[in-house]
Design brief:
The protein is an all-beta fold. It has a single domain, classed as Sandwich (Jelly Rolls). Helices cover about 0% and strands about 50% of the residues. The strands form two sheets. Strands 1, 3, 4, 6, 9, 10 and 12 form a seven-stranded antiparallel sheet that branches. Strands 2-5-11-7-8 form a five-stranded antiparallel sheet, with no helix packed on it. The protein is globular and about 50 Å long.
């Protein structure tokens, strides 16, 4: 196993390769006491799309025998109270290519607001020397299309096939 981040995601108020994607073009870095810097944006979905990534990073992986395996991703997230027109239920999806496989967990009416929560470890396969980690949503309830969320302490671990 190899931790792919030499430092924690948004350390030193830097993006360290994590970029906004089509699902949250206006995502920003914020800093709180501590100092703690994190990404703040929306998970956004449009009915004509099956997946809308909001936050993305491309990793360069060693080739050769380690050319196939899994990426294990986890992070902390904090959900904001829904604003008028925002979804009360939304899936948080992590993948490298949604058509090849993905894992999701749900934010719903019972999810606490304003409290940092730990995601489960989300595993998906990679093949080759480059891999994306995409965080976004595959769907929401009703006609709402987005939900405000903060993301911090992203960990990505490469687990090559044996």
């Amino acid at each position: 196993m190899k931790n792919l981040d030499d430092f924690t995601d948004f350390e030193n108020r830097e993006r360290n390769g994590w970029e906004n994607d089509i699902g949250s073009l206006d995502g920003i870095l914020k800093t709180e006491e501590g100092p703690n810097t994190f990404w703040s944006g929306k998970l956004e979905w449009r009915p004509t799309h099956t997946f809308m990534p909001s936050l993305a990073k491309m990793f360069t992986l060693p080739g050769g025998e380690q050319g196939k395996g899994n990426l294990e991703t986890s992070f902390k997230y904090r959900v904001h109270p829904p604003e008028p027109g925002e979804a009360t239920e939304i899936s948080v999806t992590v993948t490298d290519n949604v058509s090849l496989g993905h894992n999701s967990f749900f934010i719903d009416k019972r999810t606490p607001h304003g409290k940092w929560l730990q995601s489960s470890t989300i595993t998906f396969p990679y093949s080759g020397t480059r891999a994306h980690v995409l965080i976004g949503t595959r769907g929401v309830d009703g006609t709402a299309v987005s939900r405000k969320i903060d993301i911090d302490d992203i960990k990505v671990v490469q687990v090559p096939n044996q």
